[in-house]
């Protein structure tokens, strides 16, 4: 939940409205607002409590209290005070009433109650139809539900109220594209680009939006032209989705354009970023690492430079340097949950479980986003699974799915663990929940799910379809894991070799991945892993002469 954005917006809006109402100009209210603006939330809450003791129907006091409670993660209190604010705020306080509805909607979005969230957002749009945020969130929630007509309906509502707003026009383009009306969608981008005195950042993001639409509409070359033009204005507007499409449709033209742009503007770090991503996508990891390290001096002042370096080191399997970079990153930002999660994974795969557990606790203590929180729980759950502490593993896998419901495949892993605990009823329930989750997302059960269900024939069939791209190291590795679990060692070894041939260098992951347990002790397995370890070592030594791995800046 992006509470800080709501908080910042309301800080700008509320004092204006409050000044118009005499009930707000009290000593306690003025001191509360002063404290809130300076970031002293507890003092602000203290003054607001005193104000509400003296004047329990002051809707503005309820509003500020709701806002600060949301900002400090006291969501239950935030909900109560927001509802009280709506009860006591005067009808004329449209900005405040709209923002309280938005705040309640965001809380219900966090609680995965989409219906209530939509209801509050619709009310916010009625209270203040010229505010774009309700329409934006309504469109996003409709997209999440797969309601394409709803996306278009809310976009039309918003555009009627804000016909000249650039963001609203781009939201309309997005909604039209969801309904496969690409020509109309591109037309809205054209209207934005035709505006006089368009800000450079707005031009950049409109070009990259139009590039995405053209790629989806089967116009990859036109998309590439927009992408390159938009990037020259502002690199940070780019979407990874369009790059993925262009990688698969016009890879050579994309590469040649990036190389030419880099040659023309070698001082621009973003061309190196693109080249790094291009090489990584095509499993040319040595080139990716070289391109990546070459751009780091230009990013020396960016606070995530050492985190990026750790990713580069992991591609060539250098765990020691990856750890060193992560520890440097923590000296720059000791509250980065993402960094602690990466360290947790590194320690888990190298068997340093006590240190991994410490990193889990650190990561969870710094309010990680949903994906990092899920990863922290899942990594710890895998350690518990290895240690045969199955109930603890189940608890962590469940916590991971609550944090990020997209990881619904863990239901089958949980079912397997209930089997290990000899609890058939809970196992059956977990499997049933897993099937329902796949169905709800319109997805066929995965090969891994069929492995867990004991349907080896179906797992084998799907494993054969897992290789979506011949040169994908990840696809071959995942196929190897399935084959190893269903008793097809020859195919497992074949695809594991292909994974390493195409650049898979996570040898510690191979060592701890239980999916490959049936291959351990096989002469062919040991010889193959050792062979590619030697190749990886040669690659690392060749790179060391070209790159600064210490990042002494």
Explain this structure.
- This protein has helices spanning 3-19, 27-37, 41-54, 59-71, 75-88, 94-110, 114-127, 132-145, 148-161, 166-178, 182-193, 200-216, 220-233, 240-249, 251-264, 269-281, 285-295, 305-315, 319-332, 337-349, 353-365, 370-386, 390-403, 410-420, 424-440, 447-453, 456-465, 473-485, 489-501, 507-512, 523-544.
- It has 553 residues and is mostly helical.
- Among the domains are: 1-128, Serine Threonine Protein Phosphatase 5, Tetratricopeptide repeat, CATH 1.25.40.10; 196-282; 337-445, Serine Threonine Protein Phosphatase 5, Tetratricopeptide repeat (Alpha Horseshoe).
- The model is unreliable at 1-23 (pLDDT under 50).
Identify the notable features of this structure and list them briefly:
Serine Threonine Protein Phosphatase 5, Tetratricopeptide repeat, mainly alpha, 553 residues
């Amino acid at each position: 939940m992006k509470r800080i954005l709501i908080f910042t917006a309301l800080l700008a809006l509320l004092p204006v409205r409050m000044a118009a109402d005499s009930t707000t100009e009290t000593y306690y209210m003025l001191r509360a607002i002063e404290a809130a603006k300076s970031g002293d939330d507890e003092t602000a809450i203290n003054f607001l409590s005193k104000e509400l003791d003296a004047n329990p129907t002051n809707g503005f006091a309820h509003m500020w209290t709701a806002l600060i409670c949301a900002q400090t993660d006291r969501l239950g209190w935030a909900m109560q005070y927001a509802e009280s604010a709506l009860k006591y705020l005067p009808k004329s306080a449209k900005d405040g009433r709209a923002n309280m509805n938005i705040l309640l909607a965001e809380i219900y979005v966090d609680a995965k109650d989409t219906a209530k969230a939509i209801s509050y957002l619709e009310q916010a749009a009625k209270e203040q139809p010229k505010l774009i945020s309700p329409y934006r969130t309504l469109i996003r929630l409709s997209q999440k539900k797969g309601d394409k007509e709803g996306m278009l309906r809310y976009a039309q509502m918003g555009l009627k109220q804000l016909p000249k707003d650039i963001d609203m026009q781009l939201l309309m383009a997005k909604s039209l594209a969801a309904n496969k009306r690409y020509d109309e969608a591109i037309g809205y981008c054209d209207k934005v680009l035709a505006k006089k005195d368009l800000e450079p950042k707005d031009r950049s993001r409109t070009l990259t939006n139009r590039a995405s639409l053209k790629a989806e509409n089967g116009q990859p070359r036109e998309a590439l032209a927009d992408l390159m033009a938009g990037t020259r204005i502002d690199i940070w507007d780019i979407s990874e989705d369009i790059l993925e499409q262009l990688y698969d449709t016009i890879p050579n033209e994309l590469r040649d354009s990036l190389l030419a742009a880099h040659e023309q503007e070698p001082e621009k770090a973003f061309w190196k970023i693109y080249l790094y991503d291009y090489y990584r996508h095509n499993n040319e990891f040595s080139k990716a690492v070289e391109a990546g390290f070459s751009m780091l001096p230009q990013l020396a002042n960016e606070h995530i430079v050492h985190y990026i370096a750790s990713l580069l080191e992991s591609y060539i399997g250098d765990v020691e340097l990856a750890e060193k970079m992560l520890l440097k990153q923590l000296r720059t930002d000791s509250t980065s949950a993402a960094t602690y999660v990466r360290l947790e994974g590194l320690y888990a795969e190298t068997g340093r479980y006590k240190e991994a557990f410490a990193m889990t606790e650190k990561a969870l203590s710094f309010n990680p986003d949903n994906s990092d929180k899920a990863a922290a729980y899942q990594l710890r759950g895998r350690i518990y699974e290895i240690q045969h502490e199955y109930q603890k593993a189940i608890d962590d896998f469940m916590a991971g799915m609550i944090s990020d419901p997209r990881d619904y495949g863990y239901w089958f892993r949980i079912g397997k663990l209930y089997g290990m605990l000899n609890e058939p009823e809970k196992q059956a329930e977990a499997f049933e929940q897993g099937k329902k989750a796949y169905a709800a997302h319109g997805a066929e059960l995965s090969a891994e799910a069929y492995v867990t269900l004991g349907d080896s024939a179906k797992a084998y069939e799907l494993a054969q379809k897992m290789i979506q791209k011949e040169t994908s190291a990840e696809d071959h590795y995942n196929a190897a894991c399935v084959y190893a679990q269903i008793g097809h060692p020859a195919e497992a070894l074949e695809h594991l070799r292909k994974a390493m041939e195409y650049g898979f260098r996570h040898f510690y992951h191979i060592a701890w991945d239980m999916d490959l347990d049936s291959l351990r002790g096989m002469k062919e397995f040991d010889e193959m892993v050792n062979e590619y370890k030697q190749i990886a070592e040669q690659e690392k030594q060749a790179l060391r002469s070209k790159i600064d791995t210490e990042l002494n800046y």
